[in-house]
Amino acid sequence: MRDSVAVTGASGYVGRNLRRHLARRGIRAVCLTRRPLAARATETVVAGPWASARAARALRACRAMVHLAGVGRHSGQGGYSQNAALAEEAVRACRRARVPKIVFVSGLGADSRATAYFASKMAAERAISRSGIAHAIFRASYIMGRGDALSSKVRRMARAGRVAVPGTGRYAMQPVHIDDACAVLAGEAMRPGSRRTLDLVGPERVTYRRLAGALAGGARLRAVPMESAIREAARSARAPYDLDELALLAGGFVGDHARLRRAARMGFMGLRSML
Questions:
Q1: DSSP secondary structure letter of residue 39
Q2: β-pairing verdict for 101-107 and 134-140
Q3: Is 30 within the bounds of a domain?
Q4: How far is CA 87 from CA 65, 100, 104, 237, in A?
Q5: Which of 10, 66, 191, 256 could join 15 via S-S bond, C-beta 3.0 to 4.6 A?
Q6: Could you tell me if residue 170 is inside a domain?
Q7: Coil, strand or helix: which one is 77?
Q8: Is the pLDDT of residue 74 over 60?
């Protein structure tokens, strides 16, 4: 009986929160990890290659895989081509165990191919959409909540006295709360079938300057010319923002929340609740 949901990238930010969401609802999870991970009572942890016989046995109990593993903007790593390779590996693992569905978290702006990160997410999307397996692809905006990377970055700068805001700061964002994101992913994993791509975005659009100001808690905002921010990001790993973050911000990527809301059949937190 397929009563479980597989989660790759189970130790990452979204993975940890998704596992908590599933456990609270009594949904069993199969966590595919590269390293050992402490398991909850409702979890089976498989550390090691997804091609192993043990992974295949565990996956046979799964009705869907939520594929989160990848190289992210905040990882400090290069080699974004791993994102496509990991998606292909996820597809092969699902085929071997006949997992009927893949839910994949991509990035809002992936179709723009603006940077190597976005291009790699687009390549990963293609690997999943062409797999012949039922799938749902969610192009995520900033996912905000307890300990998210963006909020943590802004608050660190605020503690140091000033928050750098690249360019005008008037470019748009559409953050979604981590609890809402997990509810969307879990709900989709439990829903049979589908072949669709949706924007995983919150109900409100906000400029980065306004969002940074709210997160900074009264700390001074410091405008930095975008060209200077790009040069610093290219020169130093200690720059306030890396090149992919700057591309995401300057791109002003926003999405179709109304379509997501109809598909997910749930309410979403507004900005005030996220901060």
A1: P
A2: parallel
A3: yes
A4: 11, 15, 9, 27
A5: 10
A6: no
A7: coil
A8: no
**Contact call for residues 32 and 90 (beta carbons, < 8 A):** no
Residue 98 in tokens:
């006949």
Q: What is the pLDDT of residues 168-218, one digit of tens each?
A: 999 999 999 999 999 999 999 999 999 999 999 999 999 999 999 999 998
Rg from Cα positions in the chain: 19
Amino acid code (one letter) for 258: A
Question: Chain-wide mean pLDDT for the chain?
Answer: 93
Please determine, for residue 253, whether its predicted confidence score (pLDDT) is greater than 80: yes
- In terms of Cα–Cα distance, which of 218, 240, 223 is closest to 231? 240
Positive or negative: CA dihedral 232, 237, 238, 243: positive
DSSP 153-164: HHHHHHHTTEEE
Spatial contact of 207 and 175, defined as CB atoms under 8 Å apart? no
Nearest to 93 by CA among 130, 67, 125, 122: 67
Exposure of 204 by Cβ count < 10 A (0-12 exposed, 13-18 middle, 19+ buried)? middle
The lowest-confidence range among 73-82, 89-98, 103-112, 129-138 is 73-82
**Would residue 218 count as lying in a domain?**
no
**208-216 vs 149-159: helix crossing angle, rounded to 10:** 60
The CATH number of whichever domain residue 189 belongs to comes to 3.40.50.720
> Count of domains in the chain?
1
Range of the domain at 19: 4-145+176-204+254-274
- Residue pLDDT, tens place only, 24-64: 999 999 999 988 899 999 999 999 999 999 999 999 999 99
